[in-house]
Amino acid sequence: MSDHIHSIGYAKSGYQLSDILRDFKTFTSKQIINSILEDPGESRQEWILRLFKYFAKYNSSNTTYQFWKNDNKSIELESPKWISQRVIYIHNNPINAGKVKLAEHYIYSSANDYAEGEGLIEVELIDLVFTEGFVPT
Question: Rounded to 5 degrees, what angle do the CA atoms 90, 93, 81 make?
């Protein structure tokens, strides 16, 4: 989605998912902010950077630019059914937002990988488990 991200992840032994998420947010925010700073043709540059500076004032660990929100809405997926429900929720998110008619048409979604296509990045497919009354759309 253009204003948020959904993902399902796990940490291999010896790693903490919270550290991985922290590093992901640090890396992506630096990359995006640098691309904004380095693009003289970006017409919204001044406005965007002013907003990022404003929100950085409220974060003691980030004094220059605040890109990501500090909170995460993490949900521990405790069963195959929960995982299947979350994958379908994530894939249907662009449909529910009115961006596409079919989940696999949203370019930034892994739905295309599940529809036997190939998405933008390599993903590890999850064997989806469907229970009675729970049908993917």
Answer: 35
Looking at the domain assignment, is residue 5 inside a domain?
Answer: no
- Please state whether the predicted TM-score (pTM) of the whole model is above 0.85: no
Q: Domain range for residue 18?
A: 14-72
* Under 8 Å between Cβ of 57 and 103: no
Distances from the Cα of 66 to the Cα of 28, 31, 62, 100, 129, angstroms: 12, 13, 7, 30, 38
Q: Which of 113, 131, 94, 65 is nearest to 6 (CA)?
A: 94
SS3 34: helix
18 and 29 together in one domain: yes
Q: Is 22 helix (H, G, I), strand (E, B) or coil?
A: helix
Q: How many domains does the chain have?
A: 2
The model's pLDDT over 48-79, given as tens digits with 9 standing for 90+, comes to 999 999 999 888 877 799 999 887 778 888 88
80 and 136 part of one domain: yes
Q: Is 90 helix (H, G, I), strand (E, B) or coil?
A: helix
